[in-house]
Design goal:
It contains 21 helices and 28 strands. It is of the alpha+beta class. A four-stranded antiparallel beta sheet has the order 1-28-27-26, with no helix packed on it.
Length: 931
């Protein structure tokens, strides 16, 4: 008796023993078929319902735990590098600041790791354990040991402290960087750039998270915080690598520079000590000579030399100790007179000691009546050495002044050449002006003598205007400083800006005081040149070096694990899976010549509208084998979207800066030009005259009203079936405090629920990845979110809860979004276009991949029901749409890059087929297997 006859036999239906035996035999056959099927299938596509394959929730738990463990390892690596840096910095002077800031930074890392562990343990309880609350947060991070076993402060354990911890982390990072830059001997731009970027992002996240106060125990916010671990981990990796390079290169460089400075002070101390011995020895020959002025002068000079040499030796040792002390303050935090005394006084005292000793030695030769030759030679050599010492010391001081004054842009020789040139120019100008003045005076005197006319007015006028006559500017000097100042300015022009009267140029006897005039004008010229050079030499800030960004491609669900009932698995899914497996492309529509951007079936299922970058939109008749019903031609602009009204009477086509309203027959009823870019259009439910236009941060009800969404750059919106709420997705333009992240890819994205009647935001939920589209189910309870590229779609539940803020109306309700599922693909996929609800009562979720693969999940369980492998369509997929008007057969359409529209369809299906039980075993296989 075969199986069909057994099922028809009543004895088989009611006989327990025979029924049990038959079931056992059936299970054995199915097990053998499953093993054979697994050998035939692709090894990369394992069956989805085998016992050893983890469930969807188990996969999310594993992926979430791996993500947290990777973040924990990154924090440990940074902490290890900070410990190494602290050990290396102990060799440096003035290292107490960097050691203290590094200690606080490590302590902050421990606190954040504790909070992130608590957050991850809530999301993934089976994979990540909580840290005991009685244990110290930083037990393995800090060097201080707690002497008590008291519980930690509550603020450290509260997830609500995340914004404060991020803000404190930013302060600790910038404090550590400032202490690092207090070593003037070495500066690493890579460390500065990475830490400044980290500080910027931490402050940005802290400001954004302030908006979610009281919601840090919600799964959506917890998930967003967990996703931030990838960005924070990337920053910590950059800092770890840069700190490692700093330890290898920067610390030895700083240590060498400090050792070199200490060696100089040690050498000065040695020389000063030796010179003190020499001076004290020579005093043995002169200290008793006190008879005359000459002898007294010798003793005074040598005693002064001894005092200066001892002071130089002692101050050198003091400076050496200060240089090597790790607890000393950095240079910019010490008073200027202390720095001068420590750094400059030893050399100054030694120079003064040498000068006093040399002059005293010269006078000693005369006081002791030495020979003429000895006295003369000593005097000459003393004069030469003293003059050289004075000149070299003046040169060193001048070089230091020029370096500080001009920020190291010119040398002392350039400044001397420039000053000499300007002085010569000033003398020439003064001489020419005096000659002109004397010529005018001589001519006026000659005219008085020759003629009988007097010209007092003319002489007075000439005398008044002579000093303000414009002077021709000379060409720019040809020295090395010509590029540091404006070529149109010179010493002559600077001199002309400050004219001096003739009365000021002449003394009482009528002679000009040329040196005084020259000095005055020279000072004015030098002052103007210094101002111009300072303006031209302002340093520019270095550009920020962007770092690479790694987008998180792991979706995680905060839902608790749930066991799927076997009967429920074999219920509606038993008919859906075999039916979906018969889905195949039945027709290719090649009407477009460019990429198909969007397509949508009409609510009645009679028409399919497409939009393409070839500036055309086509309406097909579904019942007539997708014959062309109308071609909608647009003069300019790519068509980014089509949207049918609820009754299918009108069709919207979205242009970059405009919207066109068409009838179902292809007649353009209205063209609406918009001043801003239009990112999405959506009809109001059960309305044929009003629709929403998403333009930046505003949503406009054309042409009646507009709604502002604050600082959210909306990409798409959806309207609930009751028309009371708008749901939008998009990134924030800026944080509430106006800050921006270090890179545009790190901006916060969010899902927002806006009440149209009250014009208030009911809920704002952060998401980590770039959001693309939002869709609401027919009944309004489920919200489907689509992301960019490799991030799978998510299903959110919109719940209505009592509004506790509205005390006047006890029945007021507010919406809240709760994440239900993340639809995980079986392999890495580049998703394209928005995800769609499909099937009867939106029981399916489908999404297309760029390579041509299509995933179909069950909406409520997130189980993958069917997977269509990538196929050769003549172009990559760009979008997908489902025909909601027909459930038998199933029908969907896909668009591609080459402009082709593919129609997929299932044959009329009989759910009682025996193959349903076989196909249930392998939902990801592309073709049916025969028994």
């Amino acid at each position: 008796m075969n199986r069909d006859h057994q099922e028809r036999d009543p004895r088989f239906l009611y006989g327990d023993s025979r029924r049990n035996q038959t079931i056992i035999s059936l299970l054995n056959v199915l097990s053998e078929l499953s093993s054979e099927s697994s050998l035939d299938n692709d090894t990369n596509l394992p069956p989805a319902f085998e016992d050893d394959d983890p469930t969807v929730d188990e996969k999310l738990q594993i992926a979430g735990s791996e993500s947290f463990n990777k973040f924990e390892r990154r924090i440990e690596n940074l902490d290890k590098e900070l410990r190494n840096f602290a050990n290396a910095a102990r060799q440096l002077g003035s290292s107490v600041g960097i050691l203290s800031s590094g200690f606080r930074l490590r302590e902050r890392l421990g606190k954040l790791l504790f909070l992130f562990r608590e957050n991850a343990a809530t999301l993934f309880p089976r994979k990540i354990s909580r840290q005991p609350r009685a244990a110290p947060i930083v037990h393995e991070w800090t060097e201080r040991q707690r002497t008590d076993n008291q519980p930690l402060p509550k603020a450290h354990l509260d997830p609500e402290s995340f914004p404060d911890q991020f803000a404190g982390f930013a302060e600790d990072v910038v404090t550590f960087l400032n202490c690092l830059n207090e070593f003037p001997e070495f500066t690493d731009e890579a460390v500065n750039t990475s830490m400044r970027a980290f500080e910027c992002d931490l402050k940005y996240w802290a400001s954004c998270l302030q908006e979610y106060k009281g919601q840090f125990r919600y799964p959506a916010v917890q998930r967003y915080i967990h996703d931030l671990t990838s960005e924070i981990g990337e920053h910590t990796d950059n800092i770890t690598v840069n700190l490692s390079m700093f330890i290898e290169i920067g610390v030895p460089t700083i240590r060498f520079a400090q050792h070199h400075a200490a060696s100089n002070l040690l050498n000065l101390s040695t020389v000063a000590t030796f010179f003190s011995v020499v001076t004290a020895t020579t005093l043995q020959f002169s200290y008793r000579l006190t008879d005359g002025v000459l002898e007294t002068s010798v003793n005074a000079l040598w005693f002064s030399s001894l005092v200066f040499s001892i002071a130089a030796s002692v101050n050198s040792l003091l400076g050496l100790t200060w240089k090597q002390a790790m607890y000393r303050s950095p240079g910019h935090r010490v008073p200027w007179w202390v720095l001068i005394w420590i750094k400059r006084s030893p050399l100054v005292f030694l120079v003064m000691s040498v000068a006093c000793f040399s002059v005293g030695l010269m006078l000693f030769t005369y006081a002791t009546d030495q020979g003429l030759i000895t006295s003369t030679i000593t005097t000459v050599f003393t004069a030469i050495t003293s003059f050289g010492l004075a000149v070299v010391s003046a040169w060193f001081v001048s070089e230091r002044y020029i370096f500080v004054h001009y920020n190291g842009q010119i040398w002392l020789d350039d400044a001397i050449s420039e000053a000499t040139h300007r002085m010569l120019c000033l003398y020439v100008v003064v001489a020419i002006r005096n000659i002109i003045h004397r010529c005018i005076f001589a001519i006026s005197s000659l005219l008085k003598r020759v003629t009988s006319f007097k010209f007092p007015d003319m002489i007075t006028r000439i005398g008044r205007t002579d000093h303000t006559l414009p002077i021709m500017q000379e060409g720019p000097p040809t020295d090395d400083l010509s590029h540091h100042r404006d070529n149109s300015s010179s010493a002559c022009s600077a001199f002309a800006e400050h004219p001096t009267s003739i009365k000021g140029l002449a003394s009482e006897d009528g002679k000009a005081s040329r040196p005084a005039v020259a000095r005055q004008r020279f000072k004015g010229a030098v002052r103007s040149v210094i101002i111009m050079q300072q303006q031209a030499a302002r340093p520019s800030m270095p550009q920020r070096i962007p770092s690479f960004d790694w987008n998180s491609a792991v979706g995680m669900s905060p839902t608790r694990p749930s066991s799927v009932d076997l009967d429920a698995t074999q219920g509606p899914r038993a008919t859906l899976i075999p039916k979906l497996k018969t889905l195949e492309p039945v027709q290719d529509l090649s009407v477009h010549t460019a990429l198909v951007r969007h397509l949508q079936f009409s609510p009645s299922g009679k028409y399919l509208a497409t939009s393409s970058w070839d500036r055309s939109s086509v309406i097909f008749r579904v019942e007539d084998a997708f014959a062309i019903h109308a071609i909608l031609v647009h003069v300019r602009g790519f068509i980014g979207q089509v949207a049918w009204s609820s009754s299918g009477t009108f069709l919207l086509t979205r242009l970059p800066r405009g919207i066109k309203v068409w009838t179902e027959d292809g007649v353009c009823k209205k063209t609406i030009e918009r001043p801003h870019s239009v990112s999405s259009v959506v009809w109001l439910p059960a309305n044929e005259t009003q629709f929403f236009s998403v333009e930046g941060t505003r949503v406009l009800k054309l042409v009646l009203d507009s709604y502002h969404f604050g600082g959210i750059q909306l990409h798409n919106v959806a309207v609930t079936p009751d028309g009371q709420r708008l749901l939008g997705v998009g990134p924030l333009l800026a944080a509430p405090n106006g800050m921006h992240p270090s890179r545009t890819t790190r901006v916060e994205k969010c899902i927002v629920v806006f009440n149209i009647e009250t014009r208030t935001f009911e809920n704002q939920t952060p998401v980590f990845n770039d959001v693309r589209d939002i869709t609401v189910s027919k009944r309004g309870g489920n919200v489907l979110i689509s992301f960019e590229y490799k991030t799978p779609p998510q299903l959110w539940k919109m719940e209505l809860v009592r509004d506790t803020k509205d005390r006047e109306n006890p029945y007021a309700q507010t919406a809240r979004l709760v994440l239900r599922h993340t639809y995980e693909p079986i392999a890495q996929v580049d998703f394209v276009g928005p995800s769609y609800f499909g099937g009867m009562d939106d029981q399916l979720v489908l999404c297309a991949g760029k390579a041509g693969d299509i995933h179909i999940w069950e909406r409520d369980t997130a189980i993958l029901l069917h997977y269509i492998k990538p196929q050769v369509f003549g172009g990559d997929l760009t979008c997908v749409a489902w025909n909601h008007s027909t459930d038998d057969p199933f029908m969907l359409a896909t668009g591609s890059h080459d402009g082709t529209v593919h129609i997929w369809k299932t044959p009329m299906w009989d759910g009682s087929s025996d193959d349903a039980y076989h196909l249930l075993l392998d939902p990801v296989e592309g073709t049916e297997k025969q028994h």
